[in-house]
UniProtKB/TrEMBL annotation:
Gene3D superfamilies: Immunoglobulins. It comes from Suricata suricatta (Meerkat). SUPFAM superfamilies: Immunoglobulin (SSF48726). InterPro entries: Ig-like_dom, Ig-like_dom_sf, Ig-like_fold, Ig_I-set, Ig_sub, Ig_sub2. This is SPEG neighbor. Pfam families: I-set. Residues 42-131, 135-224 form the Ig-like domain.
Length: 226
């Protein structure tokens, strides 16, 4: 009876010891597996996504990565490195989430942005585009013009907008019907109205207008032919 109790106590003690050692080995094994899993080249877990930036606002590119030891992060735009500062802010939101904030959006921010993640075991990278939307606007309107009969008159306006705006010209409130004498051209940043062999009937108030999904703008000029 005493042997039975003693034996039972011995087995219980041995069982607890084995259980503790197995638990310790299990924790060690889990930790080792975790370390083995985390150590190595960085990996992109959630890639960058294209974002739309409205002029005057801010945009954020976010990427989730896995990297151990802690990596070195570098952001670039169209192959040129971006320094952390007032315009571009490097943001570390969580241990595995990094972001780039682009402030004071403008058309020049349009482009491809890349993140490069490096640690002693290797590197990884990813890219996305920032698409900039800018309300249509006339940066510089056409000048008032005086011309002699038979001369060529040109009116030029500087324009901008993204998406590219629709452009039109009017004379005295009526849309201009183009022909080989009166016509207008539209470029990426300018539009020009040309009047060949001008006559006094071409005198009047001319308007250029631009419009896209974000807004519209217009400008006027006076033409006098004598």
């Amino acid at each position: 009876m005493n042997w039975g109790k003693g034996g039972q106590g011995t087995w219980c003690g041995l069982s607890r010891a084995v259980s503790w050692e197995l638990g310790a080995l299990s924790q060690l094994s889990d930790r080792s597996r975790k370390e083995l899993r985390e150590k190595g080249p960085p990996r992109v877990l959630e890639p960058l996504k294209d974002v739309v930036l409205i002029e005057g606002s801010a945009a954020k590119l976010t990427c989730r990565i896995s990297a151990f030891p802690d990596p070195f992060i570098r952001w670039s735009k169209d192959g040129k490195e971006l320094r952390d500062g007032p315009k571009y802010r490097y943001v570390f939101e969580d241990p595995d989430v990094v972001a780039l904030v682009v402030r004071d959006g403008e058309l020049a921010d349009l482009g491809q942005y890349s993140i490069n993640v490096t640690n002693p075991f290797g590197q990884c990278s990813d890219s996305a585009r920032i698409l900039v939307e800018v309300p249509a606007k006339i940066q510089k309107g056409p000048d008032n013009t005086k011309a002699r009969k038979g001369a060529t008159v040109t009116l030029t306006a500087e324009i901008m907008g993204e998406p590219a705006p629709d452009v039109g010209w009017t004379k005295d409130g009526e849309d201009i019907e183009e022909d080989d004498r009166v016509f207008f051209e539209i470029g990426s940043t300018t539009t020009t109205l040309t009047i060949r062999r001008a006559t006094p009937e071409d005198s009047g108030k001319y308007e250029v207008y631009v419009e896209n999904s974000l807004g519209m703008d217009q400008s006027f000029a006076r033409v006098d032919v004598a």
